[in-house]
Every structure is written in structure tokens, then in C-alpha cells.
Design the sequence.
């Protein structure tokens, strides 16, 4: 934690709103979202963190506010240190974060991925399209309210979908055959097993309601 | 009467007589997703002006399996086999990177023997991955022989892997805090024997390419990535080092005892496809060096951390005789190993670059969020820039030189 305090102290002169963030390893700081690009620029230009390792985000759950936190990991190719920068998104329903793709071109794809999987819009991003899922896919799969099995959606190729009537179906044995549950529940419930065994590859899914 | 021949005015002549501002039409070509040079299922949506690429838009996701979502829904132990399927050309290295990341979260220290075995695993995986990268690269640029040579060598490596882990391909060898088993008896001797015979063959392979006019013409000066670009685009591994970025996590942030071994980090000068090839060739030799040192100084003792027994599995004999251990075993299987809450990020120097795991834990046996930073994904992000204004045939050489694997890129 002291390392986090050091980085915080070094930056606090310029950005008084920075606070150290609890971290299991590298120094980490919390910054207000709007200041994130300025802090990252300062880290890059004045503190030798010249390498953007990763941009990602976490969804803390539908009922949590702030719901989304964006993370940046920086690395220094000279001092070989890491730093983690985290910023909470202000909106829980339509999260927006500032892009850093003008600072590091590497951020371009990372931000596209974060947008694709978690639905965080990066303002002023030059080319914010989905990257892993197909264009026109309606959901953001890494959000906590998206089920592991998936949701019935039209095929990427609508023409094929129209002709065959096929859709991208949720995975049977949803939850997987050997999935344990997290959290404090009783052992019987937590035992790894298919959570919903009413339908499988062989048995049709019962019509809901 | 001699007939007048129109042959004197050939088509070429007519074409050259055409006005210079002859309008050309740009052509859009989809290269992939099942093109032999895209090494998996990558699609490059190219816009061509004649044979010159004017715009390149990589389309990913054909192999997206939602590994991060899956990770959030299973225990730490259960995720080990999924790491095999990231960079499926170096599963052992992925296993080790994942294990170290979780150990960091659990604050677990593994004994020296375990670390040394992991180093041997990582370096053999690096050789295996670079061999395939090299062979495929050579094949893409028209040299078939190297591919056959390297496959023979990889087969020998796979035999060693099979003996060590029980599987040739999807090894799942590491456990949190240890390995699934110790090395079999005499295995290290066979590793040394492999190294012994491998070096001359490697030299022979490199000899076929390094001064081969066709290969040099196809790769030298093609796909130049400057040092500044390599850093700005987040390139890691041999791709970054080929551009002169002296970053190697094994040296810069040693893990698993890499600081004990002597090895050099090859670095390129011009950053073209040829330099990246040279880096990989040299790295294999350095890997052999590391393997030899690790095997020579292989420490004795336990190959798993004693504390880790309550994380991956209690001893089988104790499970059968002791009630506590039986309950413990059951708890590990059902609820997963109990981890402290926290956020850790660890990345390891994998064959393709820095493979990172960012784990957010809220405690309990299941990660709350796990982000996999895949080197292939980052390395490919430079494609639009590096392919632009190159010939279509050079795109093949550039792809080969970047040595990516889509299983890891798409996760």
C-alpha cells in the first residue's frame, strides 16, 4: 500500500483529487473519470510510464453504484514498474469514459473490446465498433446481468437466419456441467453441477411460463 | 499483298499510351478468415489499389469463446485447463502464467524445485512455439522444408510433454501453488538429450533461411515497426524486441526464479520482418541455455507449496484416512479454494509476448472478474498501420513475422 501512497503523493500536487487504491501488488490510484486522461498523460510524460499494458473495466453488479470501473495498467520500459489507474463511471446505465487512444494507439482495440463486452462508450474514440462479437450483436456479454449460457439472438448473417430460421441459441446445460456458485450459500447449492437440468442438448428447453 | 498486322501495337503499348491520370478503382478483398497465412481464423478486410494495400481492417472474434465470462463462473482450479486453450502452441507457459497470477493473489510462495520445473516448462514451450512460428513463417514466404524440420522437432518436444504431463497438447500441468505431479524419473536426462541434438538442427534450419536470398528479399525491409510504434501499440515479446525495445519480463521483473539464470535477450535493429525472425531464432538458443542451467541446478525437495495443499488438493492418502482432509477436499471441489479479496495483475513473458492476468477477487473460490491481456491481441493491433502501403504479398510475410495465435487473441 505504501507504493500506492508514493505514486499518489507524486501526483497529488497536480491532481489533488487522486486517492490511493487498495491493491494486492502494484501501486494503484483512484482518479475522477474526467481527469483520467490528464493523469495518464502525466504518468506517461513525467513519470516514465510509457507503455499501456491494458485497458479494461469491471461491472460491480446491477444494484451497485457506481456500477462500472475502468482500469488502466501502465508499465515503464525504463524503470520496469507497473501502475494501476482506476476510475468509476458516473452513469450506471450508459457508462461513458474518455478515450486514451490519442495517447496510446494501443488503447484503440482495448477500448473497442471494453465497449464490446461491457458496454462502456469511450467518448471521442476514432472507431468505436465491436471487436470480438459481431456487429449488431445486441448485448454486452461481460456484464453481470448477462447469463453465462447466452441469450437467444439472430445470427450474424441475417440472410442465413431468415432462410434457415436458425438463431444463436443459448448454450444447453447453462452454467456448465461443473460450475460452482460463488458467495455464501449452503453446500448443496454450491456443489458443482448443471444449475438447470431441465433442458440439455437432447431435451428441449421448456417454454418459459 | 502483305496484310497489315495489328500485332505491332501490343496491348502493353496501348496501355502505356493511356493517359497518366487513368482512373483506377479500389478493390475490397477479404483475406481470411480461412486463409492459410492468417494462421487460424483472422480476417483482414483489405482495400487494394492494384496490388498495394491502401487500408487494412482486421476482423477478429471468430474464435471468441468468452473465456473471461467462463472464468467468472468457475473456481480458480477449474480454470487451469482453459488456459491451455489461450495460446494453444505454448500451453505450458500459459499454465505457469495463470498459476503465478493466482499465487500472487493467494500470497503463496512456491518452493525452488517447483520454480525450476516451471522454468523448464516455459522454455520448452517457448522453443515449441517459436519453432512453429518459424516454420509457418518460412512456409508463407515459400520455404517448405523448414516447416517439416520443425515439426519433427516439435514432435520430440510433445513426447517430452506427454511424459511430463500426460497430454501432448492441452497440458494443464500447473496447479495453484505447485504442479500436478513431479517430473518422471529420467525426464531431465531426456530433456538434456533433446537440447543436445536440437541445437545443430536449429542451426541447420536457420541456415536455410538466414542467408537465403528469396527469404531475405521477402522479409528484409518489409513491415518495419519503429521502436516508438512498438511501444505505442503495446507490442511485447519478440515483436517488440525485433524493433529494438529491450523489454523482457524475465529480466525486468523476474518471476519463478528467472534471475538465477544467465541468458541474453536478442534485440533487433531495423524492426522489419527479418529482424523479428532473427530474434526468434536466437531466443530458442537462449531457451536451450536456460533449460540446461535449470536442469543442472534442479533443486530437490517439494514440487508444491505445503500451504497450497489446501488450495488445489489435499494428499490423497490423507483424504482417505483423515476426516478433516476429506472435508477439505470436498470444500475445495465444491466451493473452490478460499482466496483473499484484492486486485492483482501479473504478466509473464510468454513466447508470443506478455500474457497478463488481471484478477479482481471478492474473496471465495471464484474470481469476480478476470481480464486476460493477450499478447497476440495487442500485437495484431498494429496491423492496420504496418500493412498500409505494402504489397498484398508482403502482408503474408508480415503476418508470418508477427507470429500470433487466434485462440489467445479472441479468447
Sequence:
Amino acid at each position: 500500500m505504501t507504493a500506492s501512497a508514493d505514486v499518489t503523493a507524486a501526483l497529488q500536487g497536480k491532481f489533488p483529487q487522486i486517492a490511493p487504491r487498495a491493491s494486492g501488488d502494484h501501486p494503484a490510484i483512484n482518479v475522477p473519470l474526467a481527469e483520467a486522461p490528464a493523469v495518464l498523460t502525466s504518468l506517461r510524460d513525467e513519470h516514465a510510464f510509457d507503455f499501456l499494458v491494458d485497458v479494461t473495466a469491471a461491472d460491480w453488479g446491477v444494484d451497485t453504484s457506481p456500477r462500472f470501473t475502468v482500469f488502466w495498467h501502465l508499465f515503464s520500459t525504463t524503470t520496469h514498474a507497473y501502475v494501476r489507474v482506476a476510475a468509476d463511471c458516473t452513469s450506471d446505465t450508459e457508462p461513458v469514459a474518455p478515450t486514451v487512444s490519442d495517447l496510446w494507439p494501443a488503447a484503440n482495440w482495448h477500448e473497442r473490446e471494453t465497449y464490446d463486452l461491457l458496454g462502456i462508450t469511450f467518448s471521442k474514440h476514432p472507431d468505436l465498433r465491436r471487436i470480438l462479437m459481431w456487429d449488431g450483436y445486441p448485448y454486452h456479454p461481460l456484464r453481470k446481468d448477462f447469463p453465462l449460457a447466452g441469450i437467444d439472438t439472430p445470427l450474424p448473417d441475417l440472410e442465413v437466419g431468415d432462410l434457415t430460421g436458425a438463431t444463436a441459441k443459448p448454450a444447453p446445460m447453462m452454467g456448465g456441467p461443473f460450475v460452482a456458485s460463488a458467495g455464501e450459500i449452503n453446500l448443496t447449492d454450491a456443489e458443482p453441477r448443471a444449475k438447470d437440468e431441465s433442458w440439455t442438448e437432447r431435451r428441449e428447453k421448456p417454454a418459459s411460463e | 499483298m502483305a496484310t497489315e498486322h495489328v500485332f505491332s501495337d501490343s496491348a502493353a503499348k496501348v496501355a502505356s499510351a493511356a493517359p497518366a491520370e487513368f482512373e483506377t478503382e479500389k478493390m475490397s478483398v477479404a483475406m481470411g478468415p480461412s486463409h492459410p497465412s492468417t494462421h487460424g481464423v483472422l480476417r483482414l478486410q483489405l482495400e487494394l489499389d492494384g496490388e498495394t494495400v491502401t487500408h487494412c481492417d482486421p476482423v477478429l472474434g471468430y474464435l471468441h469463446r468468452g473465456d473471461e465470462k467462463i472464468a467468472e463462473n468457475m473456481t480458480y482450479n477449474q480454470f487451469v485447463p482453459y488456459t491451455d486453450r489461450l495460446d494453444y502452441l505454448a500451453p505450458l507457459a500459459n499454465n505457469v502464467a495463470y498459476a503465478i497470477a493466482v499465487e500472487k493473489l493467494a500470497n503463496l510462495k512456491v518452493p525452488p524445485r517447483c520454480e525450476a520445473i516451471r522454468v523448464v516448462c516455459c522454455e520448452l514451450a517457448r522453443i515449441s512455439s517459436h519453432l512453429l512460428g518459424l516454420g509457418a513463417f518460412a512456409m508463407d514466404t515459400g520455404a517448405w522444408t523448414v516447416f517439416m524440420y520443425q515439426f519433427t522437432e516439435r514432435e520430440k518436444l510433445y513426447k517430452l510433454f506427454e511424459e511430463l504431463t500426460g497430454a501432448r497438447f492441452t497440458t494443464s500441468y500447473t496447479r495453484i501453488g505447485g504442479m500436478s505431479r513431479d517430473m518422471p524419473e529420467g525426464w531431465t536426462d531426456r530433456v538434456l538429450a533433446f537440447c543436445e541434438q536440437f541445437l545443430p538442427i536449429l542451426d541447420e534450419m536457420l541456415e536455410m533461411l538466414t542467408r537465403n536470398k528469396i527469404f531475405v528479399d521477402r522479409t528484409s525491409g518489409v513491415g518495419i515497426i519503429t521502436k516508438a510504434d512498438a511501444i505505442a501499440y503495446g507490442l511485447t515479446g519478440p515483436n517488440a524486441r525485433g524493433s529494438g525495445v529491450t523489454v523482457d519480463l524475465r529480466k525486468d521483473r523476474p518471476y519463478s526464479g528467472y534471475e538465477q539464470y544467465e541468458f541474453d535477450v536478442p534485440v533487433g535493429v531495423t524492426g522489419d520482418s527479418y529482424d523479428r525472425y532473427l530474434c526468434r531464432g536466437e531466443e530458442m538458443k537462449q531457451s536451450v541455455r536456460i533449460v540446461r542451467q535449470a536442469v543442472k541446478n534442479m533443486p530437490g525437495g517439494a514440487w508444491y507449496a505445503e500451504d497450497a495443499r489446501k488450495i488445489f488438493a489435499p494428499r490423497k492418502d490423507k483424504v482417505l484416512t483423515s476426516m478433516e482432509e476429506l472435508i477439505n477436499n470436498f470444500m475445495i471441489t465444491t466451493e473452490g479454494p478460499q482466496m483473499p479479496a484484492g486486485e492483482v495483475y501479473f504478466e509473464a513473458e510468454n513466447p508470443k509476448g506478455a500474457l497478463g492476468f488481471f484478477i479482481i477477487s471478492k474473496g471465495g473460490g471464484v474470481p469476480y472478474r478476470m481480464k486476460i491481456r493477450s499478447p497476440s491481441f495487442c500485437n495484431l493491433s498494429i496491423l492496420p498501420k504496418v500493412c498500409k502501403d505494402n504489397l498484398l504479398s508482403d502482408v503474408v510475410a508480415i503476418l508470418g513475422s508477427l507470429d500470433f495465435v487466434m485462440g489467445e487473441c479472441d479468447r
Observations:
- Strands of chain B lie at 27-31, 43-49, 52-59, 174-175, 178-179, 339-350, 353-364, 369-373.
- Confidence is low (pLDDT under 50) at residues 1-8 of chain B.
- The longest strand of chain B covers residues 339-350.
